[in-house]
Input
Amino acid sequence: MFYKMKEFIKEIGKYSFDAMQKKHQIDFKEDNQAILSIVTDVDLHNSQAFKEFAKKNFSDLNYMIIDEESIDDIGGDLFEKIEDTEYQFILDPIDGTLNYSSGLPFYGILLSVFKRGKPLYGFICAPALDELVYTDGKQVFREHFGKTEVLKEFPKNISRVVQAHVWEVKLKPNHINGKFIVQDYFSAAIYSLYLSLGQLRAVLATAKLWDIAPLMIICKIYGMGIYDYDTNEEIEISPKYISNKGKIKNMMIMGFKDEISEIKDIFSEIVKV
Output
């Protein structure tokens, strides 16, 4: 399963990159005309391609697909469905669709495999940056410019960049004068990639399950976590943290647990949560 998933995400990564410069059919989700609700034909293509891929390769397994573009098709109680299936395939077919539809490289594809609601495999693909970071649950790998390496040592405390979604988090007037610079890539795939590579110090965000699923696996290997901003409790797949529509209910902070208090102090200097 692991190798088939890796080959699939590479294939749709190539498809997405090749289609990037073409004129896209653009629509909005649920008749919502907000710019961040954009969906393109490539989102829908990748979503359908995964359904066909799963049916072809895993028809003998008891699985469900949790996909941003078809979350409404699940119906009923999301967590009951998870308990009734052995495997959960979690997909964001294009994350950062606004960037993608504008021809900007800061987008990606996120794919994860959970077993009985517990993280198993995770894949983060940023085709325009030629980046693929993934985990088999034991090690984290990076494919970049034709080379594959095992990411053994995490460069802790190097980055001076933090990620914060600016439409949810307001910057204070003195944010430029702090110790860190706040950036927003408008893509969970990109902040997942950069956090995995040690190029971000921390992430403060709201998100959906498919946005953070690969990170839930990678963070555990690195000794990092994804925490409720208010309680410092680790986020997991449960009704306590995730709605039936897949949205994480509270603001999250991502980083090393022994740094959470320090990071929150830093954030308090530059942002209003």
Q: What stands out?
A: The chain has a mean pLDDT of 87. Helices lie at 2-19, 41-57, 78-84, 97-101, 188-196, 209-222, 260-270. The chain has two domains: 2-150, 161-272. The two ends are 40 Å apart (CA to CA).
